[in-house]
Each structure stands twice: as structure tokens, then as C-alpha cells.
Automatic annotation (TrEMBL):
Record's subcellular location: Membrane
Protein name (database record): Major facilitator superfamily (MFS) profile domain-containing protein
Membrane-spanning ranges: 57-77, 128-147, 159-178, 190-210, 222-244, 250-270, 357-375, 395-419, 440-459, 494-520, 526-549
Chain segments annotated as coiled-coil in the UniProt record: none
Pfam families for this protein: MFS_1
Chief location: membrane
Biased composition (Basic and acidic residues): 1-17, 309-324
The species this protein was found in: Penicillium freii
Gene Ontology cellular component annotations, sorted alphabetically: membrane
GO molecular function terms noted in the UniProt entry: transmembrane transporter activity
Entry annotated with the keyword Transcription regulation: no
Region annotation Disordered: where it falls in the sequence: 1-45, 303-329
Length: 571
């Protein structure tokens, strides 16, 4: 793709903003501006030209199509995967207990598979499958994030194509040849995420690319649009998948994998956002930073921030070069041990994330993301829970679960916007309104989840699910709030941290929720909902964090921001 010249677009809104900013102090990246601070030089309102708008629209449209396809594919997969795994576990159980229960077609009637032994094995296979997926994805998130910064986002996303393809093929082979491969062989499919890092890395880069081409005012709306697209796709595809399951669960399973791969193939038509726009040259091009600060160490020409840094061999880490990346050249091994190199790289590559540890509000919200993800672990077993507790078929249970977007989509389209614009105090800022809504959302999640765990019948379960779904905007509201707490050039690293934390939450949840759900199945009766009772307690902890959270005051204006900008405009 030929570079498109565009002089006036603000550097933070360019598509070539690094996925992970370089920590090299000689190339500090965009000027740090907080959303509450005054504009800096070169950031006064400008009108983007047609070329930049076309690139932005193309990127957004392609990313939306990718998200839509992947969400549809995953929604197709969930119900059929559970049913096929249940049938395999059920057949293997009765082979050792009572082979006469197995029909001529080699299958056991679904109604006979709701016994505790079969459901406990199914929960173990699902739970540990998620554990291995999440563990490997969390380990690979940072290195692939750094690769996206060095080599480009499109090329890093493209590495995930063989990973998704191999994962689909291995899963189908293991399930189809269940007389050869044990059901727990599915755990080894997690190794395919070595290629590209899996969904965690892919979605982290997608969120980052979308944030690169949106302003602060647009970002919350874009997040909710993504959410609505995902929920709409989930509703339609899950309903269709439930119908196809009544015919043959293999039909929606294979269809789901095909749709996921089709969505991931759109990577090939994505623009390379790292180099989509040329560096902006400020006017005048040689304005010195010393004009705005007395610090002689910061006399760096503004135009030099946009010049590509030439490759250089890094100095020996034994010297006073702690801010420079260590060299892994052959020559360096004669001077330093491998352990010293490892420590040096550890310090260097984690340094860009220190801004998270230095900001307590950001840490508090990240804790909420972690516990929220732990709490959401029970949703993985909701279809199985409904089928077991209320003696429904998995197709019926999957259809009921898929109906949740009929509540969440109107909530996102009309409910939350109406509350923000018509009900809440207009004197509140947009972020303050998001915080108010997040607090009420976590309350709905807590009450609704507890109701699901305690419901003795479907008649009480459905209202509880409606209440729980009413809080589904919580994570998107928190994502919007936390974005306003960091600088524009820190957003990519923040999103990477969020994805890693949520992946770690999945890892812990896959073990804890699986164990608790198995205990509930063994106890039976009222205690089948034990996992949802525990989840409600975790939501309470998130609620405490959110209700104790207060938005920080606007930070002091950086010394390189024009102080009298507003006064000049009024004049």
C-alpha cells in the first residue's frame, strides 16, 4: 500500500502509533496529553483530509466485519461443542458401567447423560481446556505485543491465521475420532496458540487499532457499537445454532469453525496501520522544546519526534545505559552472562508498563477487571447448568441463554444513552456518568447472579437472568472510564494489560469455577447452583472496588503545553 501524504492529522490519531510505545527516551513518542489537560502545540483542531478519512473508515469497517464474523462463529460453536463432548463422555461412562444403554448408532439418549458422573467429567474437560488456553495466551501476550510494535500490527495478526486453522482442525479430528482419541486430548489444542497468541492477542490488537483512529469523544461510543454488534451476532447465531443442533450438532460446529476462519482471513485486507500515514511535520518544523521548558535535556526538535530512528547497536548493559534495550548480538555473550541479559531485558520490556503501577485509580479498575472475569467464569457452564438442573435438552438451554441479547441490545441502544442524556445530572461529565452507571450495573450483576444460583424453577430463573443481563454494560463502562485515566500514547499498553489480566482471570476461573461446579453437581439439589452463589460474592467484591473508586482530579498541565491556549482562542 502506497503511503498517503497527510500533513495535518494529529500524531496521536495516526494509524502508525506503535502498539507498544518505545521506552527509548530518545524517541519518546507523542507528547503526553491527558484528556483533561489543555491542548499542546500541534494539536489544535484540524480537518482530516479525504485520504485519512478513507483509511479510518476502511479500518473500522474491516475490524467490525472481523469481530462480527468471529463472534458469530464462536456463538455457533458453544452449544454444539458442549453437546458433542457430553455425548462422548456419556458413551465412555456407560461403556464401563452398562453398555446396554448404548444404542445401535453408538449414542446414548441425551436424557440419560444428565447424571453427576457424566456432567462432572464434562465440566472438567471444559474447565481445564479453558485453563490451558488462557495460560498459554497470557504468556504470549507481551512478546506478541512487542512484535506488533516492531514489525507491524497486520503482520502480527496474520501470524494468528495458522493458529486458528490448526486449532479448528485438531478439535474436529479429536471429536470425530473419539474412539481413538480420549476426550481430554482437547487440552493439547491449546498448543496451537503458539502461532499468533490466540484470541487474547488478536483482540488486544483489534482494540488498539480501533483506539488509534478514534478520538476521546468517539471511543465510548465505538466500544458500545462493538458490544452491540457482538451481542446481536451472538443472539442470531446462537438461536440458529440451537435449531441446527436438533438436526445434528456437527452442522453448527463445522459451520462455526468455517465462519471464524473466514473472519480471520480479513486480516489479509487490513491496512498496515503502523505505516498507513507518513509522519506529520509540524509548522514550523524546527520549533525547539527548549522554547517551552528550561530543562536543557529536553531541547529536542519537535520534528525529530516523527523521524524514524536509525538502527544502532546497543551499548553494553554493564555501562550506564539502563534506558536502552540490551543487544543480543554474539559479541555481547563474551561479556555478559545469559542471566544478566535476561534481567536486563526483563527490566527494559516491563518499564513501559510502570505507569500502571504508579496510578492507584488505574490499578483499582484493573482489579475490577480481574475479579469481574473471575466472576464471569460461571457463564461458561450456564447452558450445562440449565440443562442439568431443570432437565432441559442442551438445545433448549442454549436457546434460552442466547436470548439474553434481547435485553442487552435495547439496553445499550436506548437504556444507557437515555439515562446519560435525560436522567443523570447534566452537570456531570461523561466519565462521571459512566461511573454512576457502572456502579448500578455491578449491583444488577450481583443480584441477578445470586438469583440464578438460588432459582428452583425456570419461572424464577428467567427474571434473574434479565436482572443479570441488565448489568452487562459494566465492563464496557469500565473500559471507557479507565481509558480517560491514561495518556493517549499509553492506551495501547493499557489495552494489552487489560487483555492479559482478563486472560489470567480466565485461567483462575477455569480452575475455581470448574471445581465449585463439580462440587455442586456431586451435592445435587439446591447446591447445583453453588458456582453462581460464589460468583455473586465475587461480584460483591467488584462492587466494593467500584463504589470506593473516585475519579482523580485533573493532573497539572505538562510544562510543554501552551498555558494560554484557551485565553488566546477566546480573544
Amino acid at each position: 500500500m502506497a503511503p498517503i501524504r497527510h500533513e495535518s492529522l494529529d500524531r496521536e490519531d495516526r494509524e502508525d502509533v506503535p502498539f507498544l510505545d518505545s521506552p527509548d527516551p530518545s524517541n519518546p513518542g507523542p507528547a503526553h496529553r491527558h484528556v483533561h489537560s489543555k491542548p499542546s502545540i500541534g494539536s489544535r483542531p484540524v480537518k482530516a483530509n479525504a485520504s485519512a478519512s478513507a483509511i479510518s473508515f476502511r479500518l473500522k469497517a474491516t475490524l467490525f466485519a472481523m469481530v462480527l464474523a468471529v463472534e458469530i462463529g464462536f456463538a455457533f460453536l458453544e452449544g454444539p461443542m458442549v453437546r458433542i463432548m457430553e455425548s462422548i463422555a456419556c458413551r465412555q461412562h456407560f461403556l464401563g458401567v452398562d453398555p446396554t444403554k448404548i444404542g445401535a448408532d453408538g449414542q446414548v439418549p441425551e436424557a440419560m447423560c444428565k447424571i453427576g458422573e457424566v456432567q462432572a467429567e464434562l465440566a472438567a474437560v471444559k474447565g481445564y481446556h479453558m485453563f490451558f488456553d488462557g495460560s498459554l495466551s497470557a504468556l504470549l501476550a507481551i512478546p506478541y505485543g512487542l512484535l506488533a510494535d516492531r514489525r507491524g500490527r497486520k503482520s502480527t495478526l496474520a501470524l494468528s491465521l495458522p493458529g486458528f486453522g490448526l486449532n479448528s482442525i485438531l478439535t474436529i479430528v479429536i471429536l470425530w475420532f473419539s474412539d481413538i482419541f480420549p476426550l481430554r486430548a482437547l487440552w493439547f489444542t491449546a498448543l496451537t496458540w503458539v502461532f499468533g497468541g490466540g484470541p487474547v492477542v488478536s483482540f488486544a490488537i483489534i482494540w488498539t487499532m480501533m483506539a488509534d483512529v478514534t478520538t476521546e469523544a468517539e471511543r465510548a461510543g465505538i466500544f458500545f457499537q462493538f458490544a452491540i454488534v457482538s451481542m446481536g451476532a451472538d443472539f442470531a447465531s446462537s438461536a440458529l445454532s440451537s435449531y441446527l443442533m436438533t438436526l445434528d450438532p456437527w452442522i453448527p460446529l463445522v459451520t462455526g469453525f468455517a465462519i471464524v476462519m473466514a473472519g480471520m482471513m480479513l486480516i489479509l485486507v487490513l491496512p498496515e496501520t503502523k505505516h498507513a500515514l507518513p509522519p506529520r511535520k509540524a509548522e514550523p518544523t524546527h520549533v525547539e522544546m527548549s522554547d517551552l521548558t528550561d530543562d536543557p535535556q529536553r531541547k529536542i526538535s519537535l520534528h525529530s519526534l516523527n523521524e524514524p530512528e536509525p538502527y544502532r547497536t546497543e551499548p553494553d548493559m554493564n555501562g550506564d545505559h539502563e534506558n536502552e534495550p540490551p543487544s543480543w548480538s554474539i559479541q555481547s555473550y563474551s561479556h555478559q552472562s545469559i542471566l544478566a541479559k535476561f534481567r536486563a531485558n526483563y527490566r527494559f520490556y516491563l518499564k513501559p508498563y510502570r505507569f500502571i503501577l504508579n496510578r492507584k485509580p488505574v490499578l483499582l479498575l484493573l482489579t475490577a477487571f480481574l475479579v469481574y472475569r473471575l466472576s464471569r467464569g460461571s457463564s461458561w457452564f450456564l447452558t450445562q447448568y440449565i440443562s442439568t438442573r431443570y432437565s432441559w435438552t442442551l438445545a433448549q438451554a442454549n436457546f434460552l441463554v442466547s436470548a439474553r441479547p434481547t435485553v442487552s441490545i435495547p439496553l445499550f441502544l436506548f437504556g444507557l444513552p437515555f439515562l446519560k442524556s435525560r436522567v443523570l445530572n447534566p452537570r456531570l461529565s461523561s466519565t462521571e456518568k459512566d461511573l454512576w452507571l457502572a456502579r448500578r450495573s455491578i449491583f444488577c450483576l450481583t443480584v441477578g447472579t445470586l438469583g440464578i444460583g438460588l432459582s428452583p424453577t425456570i419461572a424464577t430463573l428467567i427474571p434473574s437472568m434479565i436482572i443479570q443481563t441488565s448489568g452487562s454494560g459494566f465492563v464496557f463502562l469500565c473500559r471507557s472510564i479507565i481509558t480517560t485515566l491514561v495518556e493517549r500514547d499509553e492506551t495501547a499498553r493499557l489495552f494489552t494489560a487489560i487483555e492479559i489480566i482478563q486472560s489470567l482471570g480466565n485461567v483462575v476461573a477455569s480452575l475455581s469455577i470448574t471445581t465449585v461446579f463439580q462440587i455442586g453437581l456431586r451435592l445435587g439439589g439446591f447446591w447445583i447452583g453453588l458456582a453462581w452463589m460464589m460468583t455473586s460474592t465475587l461480584f460483591c467484591l467488584v462492587g466494593v472496588a467500584i463504589w470506593s473508586f473516585n475519579l482523580p482530579p485533573s493532573p497539572p498541565t505538562p510544562d510543554f503545553v501552551v498555558e494560554d491556549y484557551d485565553e488566546d482562542d477566546r480573544a
